[in-house]
Design brief:
Elements lengths: L4 H18 L1 H4 L30 H37 L1 H16 L2 H11 L4 H28 L2 H8 L4 H37 L11 H8 L11 H33 L1
Helix pairs in contact: 1-3, 1-10, 3-4, 3-6, 3-8, 4-6, 5-6, 6-8, 7-8, 8-9, 8-10, 9-10
């Protein structure tokens, strides 16, 4: 299938963000925590995006902030998908009371707004990147559980799954060799959407003061640090906000293409 221009653009922009994050120490012109100029300087050859409220280079903090933001978002997304998909598949394979108990626990967790639960947990737990990843991953795994369980229920009734059970294959075989390969495509598409949700979530937590802590930089924290400059017409807070929006749009373009491709392939097979 021909890749549409929107997906190509999304892939290119996303790859650019990833490269900047991976090679941040080589690409960033200045250290992320050192004041290299005056307060809220305008863009110039020395500081391409200007400086922040204490004179740090915004471009450098933006590059390092992308590294931290995407690290936390990727770690929490992997954790949520690993936990949520396994429990969703396990609930379908076991069925009965196991499925009912897991489903009701997920319903209870989803009945409370995720942001409120995260704020409560992070207010009593020590703030670190590992704690952020675990809290975000566990909370987001409920959504992945719902999706993986729904997909697994469609796959579990297929003839090849029944044949595997009749051969005497164990639950691990059915989950990892029969259900997972046939449920992987929608999960991959959903992974992009959940990754962007994690980026927005960690940015929200940092803006509220319970995310990534100074002197580390992340995009939500940069918006919080420079928001007072908007009163004086300074745009330092808008740069990281725009960066979050650009990354979200680019990943969504790729995820939409994956979903469209999956739907068209299923339609072609059905026809």
């Amino acid at each position: 299938m021909r890749v549409p221009p929107s997906a190509v653009l999304g892939l290119a922009v996303t790859a650019g963000f990833v490269c900047l994050a991976v090679f941040a120490p080589l690409v960033a012109p200045y250290p992320y925590d050192s004041a290299m100029g005056k307060v809220w300087e305008d863009p110039s050859p020395a500081h391409l995006l200007g400086t922040d409220m204490i004179g740090r280079d915004i471009l450098s903090r933006l590059i390092y902030g992308g590294q931290i933001t995407m690290l936390v978002a990727l770690g929490s997304s992997l954790l949520s998908f690993g936990m949520g998909s396994f429990l969703g598949f396990f609930a379908v394979v076991r069925g009965g009371w196991v499925d009912q108990v897991l489903s009701r626990i997920v319903d209870i967790m989803m009945s409370v707004p995720t942001l409120i639960v995260a704020l409560v947990l992070l207010s009593i737990l020590p703030l670190s990147l590992s704690v952020l990843i675990v809290v975000m991953g566990v909370l987001d795994s409920t959504r992945v559980f719902r999706l993986s369980r729904a997909v697994a229920m469609d796959v579990a009734v297929m003839d090849y799954v029944e044949a595997a059970r009749l051969r005497g294959e164990g639950q691990s075989w059915v989950i990892f060799r029969e259900i997972l390969p046939n449920a992987l495509t929608p999960l991959v598409a959903e992974f992009g959407l959940r990754f962007i949700y994690a980026v927005l979530f960690i940015s929200t937590l940092s803006f509220l003061g319970l995310g990534v802590q100074p002197p580390l930089a992340d995009w939500g924290g940069m918006v919080k640090e420079n928001k007072d400059g908007l009163i004086y017409g300074e745009v330092a807070a808008l740069v990281p906000a725009a960066t979050i929006a650009i990354l979200a749009i680019s990943v969504n373009l790729v995820a939409d293409w994956v979903l469209t491709r999956t739907t068209s392939l299923k339609g072609g097979r059905g026809a």
